[in-house]
Write a structure and sequence with these properties.
By secondary structure, the protein is α+β, with helices and mostly antiparallel strands. It is 37% helix and 25% strand.
């Protein structure tokens, strides 16, 4: 059964295949402001080698540390991968605090499931598993957002107890209890 784990080099091949799936669906363009999009642009050229991938994994793990270097406007975040053995199914990031932008559009928790693993319950299970992690980061109610037209993501949030707050631009905002 899949579980949340810290990023690991043990899923290297599966991770690279998943990123190819995301790229094939159009992710990674300059307009893609998602976690996957920015990491495809910034890191994908390094993923092919074991050393390059290990460096990327270390960078991701270090993003949870307060003093780690990060781009302007980014906050400390804990990235977790949804894996089983050497298979990578998706990723989730828990942002430790909200900036004004994250309060409106990004939220505390963002997640992606690789295209070939969608509609199998992975996103619902990932978010459920992440709520206790968020609680231990002193987030008592996590803001989770989704695009207005993303019915599947809205269902994931609601299945995890998300309470609709409002719509801001093209984003729906939900508060999800973590405790």
């Amino acid at each position: 059964m899949p579980k949340l784990s810290r990023p690991t080099v043990g899923v290297h091949q599966s991770f690279v295949a998943a990123m190819a799936e995301f790229r094939a669906e159009g992710r990674g363009s300059a307009e893609d402001r998602s976690m996957i999009g920015s990491e495809l642009r910034e890191f994908s050229r390094h993923w092919s080698t074991p050393a390059g991938f290990a460096s990327y994994v270390d960078w991701l793990r270090n993003q949870s540390l307060q003093d780690s270097p990060r781009p302007d406007g980014h906050v400390p975040s804990t990235t977790l991968w949804w894996t089983q053995d050497d298979a990578y199914f998706g990723r989730l990031a828990i942002r430790h605090r909200l900036t004004p932008y994250l309060r409106d559009f990004g939220g505390h928790i963002g997640y992606d499931v690789r295209p070939t693993a969608r509609r199998q319950g992975h996103a619902t299970a990932m978010l459920a598993a992440a709520l206790s992690v968020a609680y231990h980061l002193d987030i008592t109610s996590a803001l989770v957002t989704c695009d207005v037209d993303n019915v599947a993501s809205r269902r994931v949030i609601e299945r995890n107890g998300g309470i609709f707050a409002d719509q801001r631009s093209e984003k729906l905002r939900f508060w999800v209890p973590t405790g």
